[in-house]
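Let us begin with a simple case.
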Amino acid sequence: MRMIHFTKMHGLGNDFVVMNNIDGDISLSVDEIRKLSDRRFGIGFDQLLMVESAISNKADFRYVIFNADGSEVSQCGNGARCFALYIQKKNLSYKNTLTVETNAGLLILNINSDNTVTVDMGKPNFEPSQIPLNFDKESSEYLIEEYKVGSLSIGNPHAVIVQDEIKDIEHIASKIQSSELYPEGVNVGFMQVINRKEIKLRVIERGVGETLACGSGACAAVIYGYRSEILDSKVTVHLNGGDAIVELDGDKVFLTGPGEFVYEGSVNLRSGSS
């Protein structure tokens, strides 16, 4: 029986369990992660975030992300903000700007004076093979399961659908996520344009379901809207859990928003009780 300490956090309602694994002594199976993510019999979370020692000398830490279903993913913008604030609070670093490595590359995390965090999300990728999406040629829009979809990767795959009024999202997302055109699955965002500087957004995440906020999904929606000439380069994204700011600068994407601490605890991995 082994007890492991954790911190519960959230970014606009997208909630996380964060664990310090710098010493590399925490190794969880898919089944253990699933049990811990259960909101009735475990702790409950959308994603599990691990703080690990960097492999590269270009990074301060390694940022490891697991979805509630136990699958490892390469990007989570809301989690990145919480990751930075966790490092600061736990005195793991005294830097206000952190470089962290992920499976998708390096992220730059800037802790602002108002305790929000701006994440340099890197460069989006529109090449179908890199999303991945089973189309031969890149397009600004694809027809998938009868829906017009914008698709790109920002460290993880996204499909974006514009609606006059956001509705019927679970049914539509299920059809798109089960499509063989997305061999690794996809996060599906539903965007309602309020004006060129504001949108409403709901996202059904692969391996999780609908979350109150999705940072990379917010970025994907703004990128698609900007490329479609319906949005400006700086947009306020209204998510069910609160607001995030996405700003495009050349080929880079910046996500700004809060991160909050909820509580600390310890968990018995054998039983999944906290």
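The second case is a distinct protein. As before, the sequence precedes its structure tokens.
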Amino acid sequence: MKTSKKIISAILLTTSMLSAQTLVTVDGTSITQNDVDNALMNATQGRFNQVPPEKQIEFRRQVLEQLVAKELIYGDAKKTGILNSKDFKDEYQKVQEKVKKEIAVQIWQKQELDKVKVSEKESKKYYDDNRGEFKEPDSVHARHILVKTKEEADSLLKDLKLKGNALKEKFIALAQEKSVGPSGPKGGDLGYFAQGQMVPEFNDKVFSMKVGTVSDPVKTQFGYHLIYLEDKKAAKNLSFDEVKSFIEQRLQLEKFKTTIASTMKKLQEKATIK
């Protein structure tokens, strides 16, 4: 019971903690927020942020309980002599060999990659030949209030007959209070997004709006939205300096693939492969 209370308390605090912050300790071993985050990302294949907010706390609780259980089992395994058993030593040696091989391959690949150089002349030529790739599309910065019914949206719209900063502040307050969407606590902030990133009804409306205005209710598959347009950015061509690093990495990888193919052919010729 004592352990369960500690876990629940830890979960309630996780959203405001630093990654290195200790959530719980098990016989002196710390389990940190970073440990939980890594386990969550592994369990969801990097998609934890796509888990509905209402399920994230429960998911965190389960993962933290699993990490605590592992520490308890590991502690008992040490006490009962499992670490000195033949079975453990055999399995541990297999894992060591596997890890040693993987690390050696990774370091070899990194060293080979570091040998591949890309000149600025090569990068500039790629940029000039492929300017169409380096365009930043139209984008907008918007907020929204999501509610279930049109009646709710119409009612909220009556409270937004304001202008300027007063309108923005009122919109943020209503989003925090009334929006059922995951961005509600952030004042409905959706950040910047480009054409086509939102569902069609939402996308068409927001890109037709004027900065500093609020839309009429917009119906989508999620409910009814009131949209506040905070900013607009017109499409632009990215300069060479803005994309130079990206181009260098791309060309380096292309050269690396060619080099590795040649190196592997030589290694195969020297090796005994049956």
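The mean pLDDT is 90. Residues 240-270 form the longest helix (31 residues).
Keep these points in mind for the review questions at the end of the chapter.
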